[in-house]
Amino acid sequence: MVATVMLGAFQFTGGVMSGLRSTGNVIVSPFAWTIELIARPIGHLSSGALNYSEIVAQNKQLRYQLGQAQLRANESASIDRQLRQLSAALDVPYVNDLPTITAQVNERSPTNFIATIGISKGTNEGVLVGMPVVGNGGLIGRVVATTLHGATIQLLTDAASSIGCTFGDGKVNAIVSGRGLNHDLSVTAVPLKATLTPGTVFATNGLRGGLFPAGLPVAKVAGVTLTPGATTYDIKLKPVADLRHLAYVTVIAWEPGT
């Protein structure tokens, strides 16, 4: 009987303990589940932070590579543009066999009426006052001042510029003068007997004592007006050379009187 009671006690105790363990599991499990839920998003946040940092770093690297590629493209375009400008400066068939000096434009005039540019070659390179300067398809002016490694060019649009020219069959001479940087050129009276149409080119006449050798393209007729009763043309003249985009020019090693 004692054994029976003890066995029953043990069974009761085992049941109680088992119940307690079950109750403990029920009590503890929610805490463990809660801790797991809390810890899980923290893990995701940590992983997300690492991924975000990697993305930022990759974006920075891509932006740098894109910037380098754009820089190379810009440099290539700049070199191509300079080569085209230099080729245009060297393409001067109207100079014939006269020696030339190619220079880069490094300065422009401060006002519209005083139309000058500075170039990168001077007396040390053979540039002298009075030498004609061509570029971008035609005459642009002449050297009016020099230093050892630089020179000032008076453009043909300068208000103080006057150039002896001819056109067509060369039988009529005229003086083409500047009126300021952004203005058309003016020309002395051209008689109606001369054949003159839009597109006609005025070139230097090369007369003895003149400032320029013969045959340099100076200006092109942009318009011709015939006024009733007039004996001369009303002419609109523009420079042959593009004076707005001068990068390189060619100095002709020719001096007045030679």
From TrEMBL:
InterPro entries membership: Cell/Rod_1 (IPR042177), Cell/Rod_MreC_2 (IPR042175), MreC (IPR007221), MreC_beta-barrel_core (IPR055342)
Keyword Ribonucleoprotein in record: no
Keyword field: Cell shape
Ranges for domain Rod shape-determining protein MreC beta-barrel core: 106-252
Gene3D superfamilies: Rod shape-determining protein MreC, domain 1, Rod shape-determining protein MreC, domain 2
GO biological process, one term: regulation of cell shape
Family: Belongs to the MreC family.
Protein name (database record): Cell shape-determining protein MreC
Organism: freshwater metagenome
